[in-house]
Fold these 4 entries.
Entry 1:
Amino acid sequence: MTEYRPLRIALLGAGSVGAQVARLLTENKSELAARVGAELDLVGIAVRDLNSKRAEGVPAELLTTDAETLILGADIVIEVMGGIEPARTYILQALNSGSDVITANKALLATHGTELFDTAEQVGAQLYFEAAVAGAIPIIRPLRESLAGDKVNRIMGIVNGTTNFILDRMDTTGATFADALAEATELGYAEADPTADIEAFDAAQKAAILANLAFHTEVPLDQVYREGITKVSAEQMAAAKRDGYVIKLLAIAERVDADENGEAGVSVRVHPALIERDHPLGAVHGAFNAVFVEAEAAGSLMFYGAGAGGVQTASAVLGDLVSAAKRHVAGGPGLADSVHANLAILPIDRAYTRYQITLEVTDQPGILAKIANVFADHGVSIETVEQSVRQNGGKRRSTATLEVGTHVATDASLSSVVKALAANAAVESITSVIRVEGI
Ligand code: NDP
Ligand code: HSE
């Protein structure tokens, strides 16, 4: 039997995640006590509305609207309320009163992480956040601990389940973006206001958190390049499939060496991209998440699983709770994060990538050479060109569709090529521009 005094656990929130945390804490009480070496006593659950209907397993007698009093009496506080305020204030109160805190709140960490981590360090408390990125998938602890002795060069992840579901439906059924979004809403993946997911705000927050850990560098959210999936068309999806690719919303954080354009640093970006279908990330279907990590000594690692869901996310919260509770029992310092590397965060211009550009041109002698010159003028090397020609309704003039794939170049050079093509008299229209990743 355990000897350490019972630890008082305060839960802030009893929604999708909180209700499952409460249920598992209650159902698995004796097993958790045996693992930790102390009883984990859920002493209260703060909610907004005491009369709301609760999921099965939430002990009604523990509900309260007085979060502040609950926090003051706790050893460990679990914040699964979401939002910025009052979550930020409550976490600061908990840390300042000496409690360790567990949070699933990526929006808060991506915007106020520095303040929260600095406070935790000053008072010698711990802030755990495994659930904040990719739900049930253990990715924070591997970056924070398992890979702490290695050098991470690149992280490429599918970290938003809603957008992966939408893109996967477009890929597998030929649906338009609007139809796939409607299906995601009907099935409960997308929220009534889907902006945070489809405009990639959620993925950008997660990218900032991952990059911060991987590169020991503070990554302000406004320096994460962000492009959502609303402009991905059924035609782009079909063309990608024909060419052996699939379109995914990728969160990419990578080191960029110093070059003629400037100093070394870190590039963090979220945007739709073509990825080969046989790349490990190409096989991530439905609302699943996956994070592909490239480290100098470890090589390539892939973390895959459920990126959301109440009970799945509760698993990550409880993992953090066991760690925090064990630290209480064993004593001693916990993990301290650091941003000692303090690398420069580079703009999207400095990222190295490849583009696939689809354009309509008048099919005349010399046009292909003119198009090729635009790429050459900007120092961009062409890797592939595919041409198809269609007659314009019996007229002598016909239109050619060119699909041009580039070699790797800076995003600045590649976007200059697109601007120059748009202004070139030989080009009738540019129908698709998309980055290619994973090579
Ligand atoms: P929900 O909206 O389902 O639940 C939020 C809970 O917090 C509710 O019980 C609500 O009370 C309570 N709450 C909100 N504001 C206050 C307040 N001011 N005072 C007291 N209680 C309050 O959220 P989720 O469970 O879905 O998400 C929680 C967190 O977990 C978020 O940060 C989210 O980003 C993160 N997360 C969620 C995932 C998921 O799959 N759901 C996946 C990964 C992370 P009441 O019920 O009375 O309204
Ligand atoms: N809305 C998120 C997603 C889940 O679709 O992945 C919580 O991070």
Entry 2:
Amino acid sequence: MPLDDASAIRARQQVLGFLSDNAVHSGHELAATLGLSHSAVQATLQTLEKLGLDVHAVPGQGYHLPHPVEMLDADTLQRHLHPLSRTHIGRLDLHPHLDSTNTRLMQQARAGTACSGQVCLADSQGAGRGRMGRDWISPPGANVYLSLLWQFENPASLTGLSLALGVAVARALQAEHLTGVNLKWPNDILWQDKKLGGILIEATGTVGGGCQVVIGLGLNRYIPPRLSGAIDQAFTDLYRIQGQAMPSRNRLIAQILNEMIPLLVSYPRQGLAAWLDEWKTLHHWTGREVTLIQGERHVQGVLENISGQGLLILRTPEGTLHEFGSGDVRLKRSASAPF
Ligand code: BTN
């Protein structure tokens, strides 16, 4: 059965939803309750394993998922949204599976069929995209894959937006009792210097001269161990940090939207200035020796500061200050252990 065939996705959602109680269920019970054939149940369980999930077979009893699963649920999400968020969310789309929530919203924005405040969520992504052309590993059932479209009349008012949004995500996590969140320029969400999430911002112009911005957030709630090898940087997830005490996925998404939406409403007026001090408090790398990577270009220096426009200011070994608007920052290791 192909992985992204509509009926295969539907069966996957049903089986995952059923197994999300972490109890053991027999293949017979799964088939009878979900109205699937035994072979469809077997094929679905195999697909889940192919997608990186651990499905434990308990001899003589059935199957269970040893890890946390919580499917997207519109009612739970709506229940946790603040009135201001509800007012500004023009549309809330929940998809079992998409290539990429950002790609979907960008396509709709270009086609003129998307509205400001449109939210696109997926239970899994087949071609999730990270910054700098990286893949974003997006297994089903646990993590946050969220895109939000916002219309800005004046593109100049977007300066530093990605940094401010990092603060919004950090606040949402803190509200869910996560201590130790920090940020890395420009918009990585870290926990003890390990990547917990990231933001990918894309924009497209509109005829009236304004622009539509798609804010994509990926947040790790649970990355199955067998997918760890596919991630090329130190990472963590909420399950590793908080165990069973980690926040509900749907409530966390609502919480994030409750932080992002007031920010977006006020951003054209307030800009980064309203967020920069908090960003700097959450940023731990000022004064550290780093390498800034832009494709083939590697620039070493001391991370001096972040400008009022959100640019990274680096002091190179010659003592000159340089500003950067994009790139990846890595802590410099000793000369004998280059990265
Ligand atoms: C990063 O590289 O740090 C940014 C990752 C952004 C991933 C999210 S997941 C939801 C949205 N859809 C995508 O394809 N990418 C973003």
Entry 3:
Amino acid sequence: MQLYNTLTKTIDEFVPVDGKIIRMYTCGPTVYHFAHIGNLRSYIMEDALEKFLNYSGYEVKRVMNITDVGHLTSDADSGEDKMLKGAKREHKSVMEIAQFYTDAFFEDCAALNIKKPETVVPATSLVPDFIHMIEVLMEKGYAYQAGPNIYFDTSKVPNYYALTGHDEDQLRIGVRDDVEEDTNKRNKSDFVLWFTQSKFEDQALKWDSPWGEGYPGWHIECSAISIRHLGGQLDIHCGGVDNIFPHHTNEIAQSEAYLGHPWCRHWFHVQHLNDKGAKMAKSTGNILTVSVLKEKGYDPMVYRMFCLQSHYRKPLEFSYEVLSNMASAYNKLLNRIKNLNPASEQADAGQVAAYKEKFISLVGNDLNTASGLSLVYDVLKDKALSDATKLAVIEDFDQVLSLDLTKLRGVSEPEKAADNELVQYIEERIAARKAAKKAKDFATADAIRAELLEKGVAIKDTREGTVWELV
Ligand code: AMP
Ligand code: ZN
């Protein structure tokens, strides 16, 4: 596979160190709120990557952390503790919040066909490992104690900015810097490994450590969890682009200082999903969730398709208008697949293999999922293929796309015809209602809505267009 590597800034041939097994680490969610669909864009693309590697014949060992301690509202070790913020907001304990939002996260993942990594590790479950790693960093002279905290000394690593390619001053251009400078730091880019004498009086979670009671910084968890479960050589590390600095930059510094050798060869970063130009963020309340999409009548698969249609290295602009178009494209696609009639024919194994090869070469070009998806349409159009072969190829691709492309099949022929007619009818009536509204004929528009409802179809006007669902 050819895959862009943030570390080398080139598209590299991706090959695991260890033959057929790929060691993959993913930064998991900070569980103080629901995951927004921006976060989930990152997880959808990481899921597609994992499944594509599997599909291409590799075994993937994937580990994800759950950040349930140590992540402050500013990535520069200042501000409030995010978990504490969530607990206060909901008048619950930090652990209750963590459990609730971890479960909610995996429910959202299930709805989007994002496979749960085989190893999921809450940060709070591995604090002794973090302490051990910090002790080694202290012994090796990479960490120091100042004021109440233990810091990593970034001046001790030769190429601290390797991942970003820029130094911190350049990186911070345009970023509002409303956090006061921590005077305990020897260098501006140093970061906290361990907070002692907790800076928050009501800090809920504290552990004993050689430096006093306290809690770990955010970055140390991913290094320690990754090394514990995947060893000292990582093939690929994933996250959204906001993680490049400081989080992943700091992970590299402390992991390589601890191990004494290079750690992760390939860095995969997903660009952000934006909503009206602003970065979606849990902390600002600018948050759109899978549940909101479902309430508005969208199948979560439509959102997955929306993500797969765009390249992971391009920012993606969210709008209901585009999502509605995607919903209609998805429905049409499912119906075309549903109408395939393989009867009792056998799929042609040679043709299936040829399409598999094509799919691998298209998607293997820097995870070009959009090309993989358009190949589904080519398959449907290909007159040289029997319906049985088409179906077999599409089922095969769906191992990676995970769009439940054949979910309407298994329905009887009369039902199938009725269903197609229904979709057509709904689309026609929605168009007629739109025309009536435009002509200010609201009585007709209301009558169409009522008529649809009587047939079990609820429609909803969103700012960006009309959506429908069966009730
Ligand atoms: P968090 O829960 O904030 O730790 O973030 C979970 C994941 O979502 C990380 O990989 C982030 O880099 C990623 N992420 C955060 N915001 C966005 C966004 N707007 N679009 C895509 N990915 C994001
Ligand atoms: Zn991480």
Entry 4:
Amino acid sequence: MSKKQKSNKIMNMKTSNIYLKNIKQYIGQQVSIKGWVANCRSSGGIYFLQVRDGSGYCQAIVSRDEVSSKVFSACQQINLETSIQLIGLVKEESRAPSGCEIQVNDLKIIGQSADWPLGKKEHGIDFLMNHRHLWFRSPRQVAILKIRNEIIIILREFFKQEGFILTDTPILTGSSCEGVSTLFKVPYFGQTAYLTQSGQLYLEALSAALGKVYNFGPTFRAEKSKTRRHLTEFWMLEAEVAWMDHQGNMALQEKMISYLIGQVLKRRKQELIILERDVKQLEKVITPFPHLTYDQAIGYLQKTGCKIKWGDDLGADEETILSKQYDRPLFIERYPAKLKAFYMKPDPDNPKLTLCNDLLAPEGRGEIIGASQRIDDLATLKKKLKEFKLKEADYQWYLDLRRYGTFPHSGFGLGLERIVTWICGLSHVREAISFPRLINRLQP
Ligand code: 4AD
Ligand code: MG
């Protein structure tokens, strides 16, 4: 049989398509792969193709002696990111990261990719961001997106194990939760709606029906500041628990974060290696986490020479100074009421403070969680709405929760992209989401 006849026979054989992540199961067998060429070099009569299919990578070898001359000359048209289908024999190769390589018998180009724009070693960040839709085909970006996916799965598992009910709160809302300055307005049939800043108020209502609830979805903030930590659209996981107090709230956050890190280390080591993440730092994230009160934090910052006074908010620089003292996440509790949202319960020992906490990630990565016990008394809540210049009429349904069987309750919100940024060791939150939305970026 000629080489050409052999090759046609193989293409007609309907060899079953496999995913590269499973390739080791097919050693010694003929398989079909559909994917993209991540790298291509040739030497004499051989092409070495680095093929990826989303699930994994493998080297495919096209030898002049093993394929028809038509297939071999078609290889000249292969560039970075050309899409192909190939058929070949899987061989064990202990030196390859996948443990295998493929000896190609037949190959078809599905889509050309002339002048792939991201072929150079170094590109400026603006260029990469303008090509985000192509950029995330790179191994680093793929690793980040896989870790993000794993984090979501682990968190959902955690809440299931803890007996929480997943509830979905609306994206279009009629009132503010986290302050009016970061609301996105949307015309709504003659009224104004706002894109949600947090599902918390709705979760509070749901917690009276279901006890332990959480939601997980996109959240919007018209953040006017350009920082490494702020997106205008981000994903937040929020939990709310009836009858849980401030202490219980912090214990839950600690349990969740330590479980999350332990599981990511177990399940995504390979991706963390691709990102060159120092996993030793993550391995240190075990309970108990340290705590500072806001008062202690201000005292410490003043001792180190920061020009901060009691009543000032902690900025990114101050958070970094504080968290760098510890090798695990740091709770900062009991902030002054005037720095925080209207719904936080005053500290019974000092009503100028609230029963709240932020959780700061280690390695200077800033706030990953915002949390509090909520006001459960109708009169106090009404007074707070007034102080914050919020219209009582917009919050009637929320006040009802204090009118009909009020109950102590607490909860928190975890910023997914902040967690991804920390776990992956990224320098900017924009790489932690597929299509980041920033103050100056709505495309691609
Ligand atoms: O601290 P925040 O504003 O808290 C709330 O929204 C509460 N209502 C949550 C609750 O108690 N149910 O936001 C919570 C977290 C922050 O700690 C941070 O991780 C993340 O959401 N976050 C942002 N992430 C990216 N970009 C932004 N602009 C963010 N703003 C907050
Ligand atoms: Mg906050």
